[in-house]
């Protein structure tokens, strides 16, 4: 910084103000300092900066199975929001979500000196660890249920499932079958709850949900079973990948979609509009989830001990395409 100050003909304090985006620097002075920085090849020493400010400008992220569309998209949204706020991200990806794994990840990130942590916690098994997070570091959970003294950002899974189920009933279908996801996932519970609520309110039969594991293969296997059940005309599937597998099963069994069976997915993955037929689905706004996660985390970091934990729910959006049609009477 001393070399930059000499090169630009300004004081050391002026260089510091430019580097910290202080408003009280004239535009021409700022331009001269930035030119000197570029010419000298100056690079900030983030370690030294952290020692002085006691802030690393780094946020930690704990996630699970980022090969899945939902967790991967959530992490991407968080990373983009953190970068826009001027923070780097240090991530720990766990193979399984359990109490010991989450606690170890939180401890590892705390040792790195991160300023705050976002935990993508879609499974119920993460709840005990979230209820026992370190008190000296801000933490926000994504899809973390009601996790005690932790702020939570989530998509309204129940409302999304209601939108899907109501759409199918409004098309004249007598009832709606459901292909669910892994039972430990909080999202699965919410989608089953919303699906069941609409059927109960409408006084319709409630079929037993078929299990799945988020994979197209599990959707395919469930689809083969449904194709053999007389009278099935509408299916709500807990994610788009399983819906893809079900579409394949129906095609193999000669069941036409949507003429004989209407199908709705969940997530609106980028490929959904290119399925055959294009998939009607429920869109989750992962960008909004990321922005709100970072927003709540930064508020908590600023407020410190005065912070009051809160929950922010992101609304889903229904996307109608060609995989649903009125029921034949």
TrEMBL record:
Keywords annotated in UniProt: DNA-binding, Transcription, Transcription regulation
Domain HTH lacI-type: 1-53
TM annotation in the entry: none
UniProt cross-references to PROSITE patterns, sorted A to Z: HTH_LACI_1, HTH_LACI_2
Superkingdom field: Bacteria
GO MF annotations in UniProt: DNA binding
PANTHER family for the chain: HTH-TYPE TRANSCRIPTIONAL REGULATOR GALS (PTHR30146:SF109), LACI-RELATED TRANSCRIPTIONAL REPRESSOR (PTHR30146)
The protein, known as: LacI family DNA-binding transcriptional regulator
């Amino acid at each position: 910084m001393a070399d930059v100050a000499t090169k630009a003909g300004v004081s050391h304090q002026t260089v510091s103000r430019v580097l910290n985006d202080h408003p009280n620097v004239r535009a021409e002075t700022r331009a001269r300092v930035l030119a000197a920085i570029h010419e000298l090849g100056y690079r900030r020493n983030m370690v030294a900066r952290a020692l002085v400010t006691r802030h690393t400008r780094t946020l930690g992220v704990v996630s699970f199975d980022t090969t899945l569309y939902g967790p991967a998209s959530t992490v991407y949204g968080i990373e983009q929001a953190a970068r826009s706020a001027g923070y780097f991200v240090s991530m720990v990806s766990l193979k399984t979500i359990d109490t010991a794994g989450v606690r170890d990840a939180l401890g590892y990130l705390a040792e790195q000196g991160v300023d705050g942590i976002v935990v993508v916690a879609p499974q119920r098994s993460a709840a005990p660890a979230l209820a026992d997070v370190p008190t000296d570091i801000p933490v926000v959970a994504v899809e973390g249920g009601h996790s005690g003294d932790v702020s939570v950002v989530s998509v309204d899974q129940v409302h999304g499932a209601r939108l899907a189920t109501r759409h199918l009933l409004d098309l004249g279908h007598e009832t709606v079958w459901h292909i669910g996801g892994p039972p430990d996932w909080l999202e699965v519970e919410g989608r089953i709850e919303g699906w069941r609520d609409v059927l109960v309110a409408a006084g319709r039969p409630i079929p037993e949900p078929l299990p799945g594991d988020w994979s197209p293969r599990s959707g395919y296997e469930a689809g083969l079973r449904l194709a053999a059940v007389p009278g099935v005309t509408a299916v709500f599937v807990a994610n788009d990948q399983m819906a893809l597998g079900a579409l394949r099963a129906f095609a193999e069994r000669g069941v036409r979609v949507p003429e004989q069976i209407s199908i709705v997915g969940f997530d609106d993955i980028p490929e959904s509009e290119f399925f055959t037929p294009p998939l009607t689905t429920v869109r989750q706004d992962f960008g909004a989830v990321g922005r709100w996660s970072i927003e709540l985390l930064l508020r908590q970091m600023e407020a410190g001990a005065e912070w009051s934990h809160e929950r922010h729910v992101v609304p889903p959006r229904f996307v109608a395409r060609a995989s649903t049609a009125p029921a034949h009477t």
